[in-house]
Amino acid sequence: MVNTTGCFLISFLNFVSDPSGEIYLGPRSRLFLLVGVCGGYTTFSSFSLQTLNLLREREWLYAGGNILLSVVLCMVAVWLGYVLGTAFNNPAISMIGGTEAHADLVRATIPLGRQARPEEIAEGTLFLASDASSYMTGQVLPIDGGVT
Fold it and tell me: For the segment 119-131, what is each residue's pLDDT rounded down to a tens digit?
């Protein structure tokens, strides 16, 4: 149940605070809520341990049911969070003056004064996923326009 409520919560917070929407939390607050709060609230460790114990006890049907039911319930919860989050987010944009005013608000919080272009983020991501970064350990590569 924790995983299901966590899926709903992370989806709702993600879509209600989507930077392209009306409710803007700022990158740090959004990261704190999505990764910190939701990441701390739920992980799949309890689900995995329960499933492993069922498999060790040769309870194949219960293990399969646990996997299927958990995935289905979590997907339903994520979808419901999306539906409710976007429903809350869209009306809020008009309250701050429309999408241009929202875009101005977002740009004002980024020191470089603009959102990143996809290729600017892709290069760093490709580097971290490549063998070229194989000697790096425990490093953070901020690609955030100077926010951090």
Answer: 888 888 888 888 8
pTM of the model: 0.45
Output the average pLDDT for the chain: 78
DSSP string across the chain: -HHHHHHHHHHHHHHHT-TTSS----HHHHHIIIIIIHHHH--SHHHHHHHHHHHHTT-HHHHHHHHHHHHHHHHHHHHHHHHHHHHHHHHHHHHTTSHHHHHHHHHHHSTTSSPPPHHHHHHHHHHHHSGGGTT--S-----STT--
Q: How far apart are CA 127 and CA 123, in angstroms?
A: 6
